[in-house]
Amino acid sequence: MPTDPPTPRRILVTGVGANPGFGLTRSLTRLGHKVIAADANPLAPGLLLPDVVPQVIPLATDPDYPSIMVKVCRDLAVDAVVAGIENDIPPLVDMLPQLEADGVRLWLPDAESVRACIDKAAFHEVLTEHGIATPRTWRPEAIDQAPDRTELVVKPRRGHGAQNVHFVHRREHARFLCELVPEPVVQERVHGREFTADCLVDRAGRASVILRRRDLVKAGLAAVSTTFDDPTVRDLVIKTLAAVRARGVCCVQGFICDGAIVITELNVRIAGGFPLTEAAGADLVGQMVNGLFGLPVNHDCLTYRTGVFLTNYVETLAVGDVAELERTAAAKGSPS
User: Fold this and answer.
1) What is the chain's percent helix, strand, coil content, to nearest 5?
2) Which CATH class is domain 10-107+315-332?
3) In the prediction, which pLDDT does 336 show?
4) What is the pTM of this model?
5) CATH number, span 113-117+191-311
6) CA spacing 20 to 30 A to 93: which of 66, 79, 154, 172?
């Protein structure tokens, strides 16, 4: 872990209603940074964390999102923006010149790399081109190419957080679900030991990888996980990062299936289960902040202990009056 205290920064984190943004907000606050906690839902739990500046922002699909984000960053003297949810990443990539002109830091891959990670059909194409094992994937119009008696997964092509994901055993069922799921793709279902790799790729392309088994998964989130090491898995993760030209903090997911390793996705954001990585000794968020502000990433601080476990549970963060909450949030969110 770092020996010197970090320079305090004002960092805006989006998507603080979900695990990645919520956990990142907590970690940044513990490191001494001032977090502007942003979400489109005024009751997002991250807005209620102590010592944050809560800020309600539009959905990333809102036409006013870019102008409002620029204004928020100016009014609140934001030093950097970190996306905690995939939806915010494409518009932030487009806004990069404007935000950087205002002195606001971002650390994201190029637009083509972002597209390859967010679009599951494109991700399949990139990995296949690089010879990396990934589930067979079909567009809805090509579903008849799926072999008989193959377990299938129907999911949104640009989805996240395990939303609108359905498992079926017959092509007919998958075809029906393609009428209901927004922008669907159909994939071969993979069984095996599921894992997540928390990754930090510096500006020169060097990557540190921390491996976690997803021992118990509920609603797409690892309820129980354990750190482990496997050189073959780590090497394939690094190959995947290079294939999509990843930069900054991200996470790779996959399965170990009878000795074979299959990569299923790469998220261009911190993972919801990253607190285990920090508990195991890796300074993931601290080194991410270093890279975000153009400082060297110390990969020696990203080593970790294996066999460390984490269990998650749901807790009640706050119960109260909505009107009072809105008044408090408005007061705390005023420019300072």
Assistant:
1) 35, 25, 40
2) alpha beta
3) 40
4) 0.90
5) 3.30.470.20
6) 154
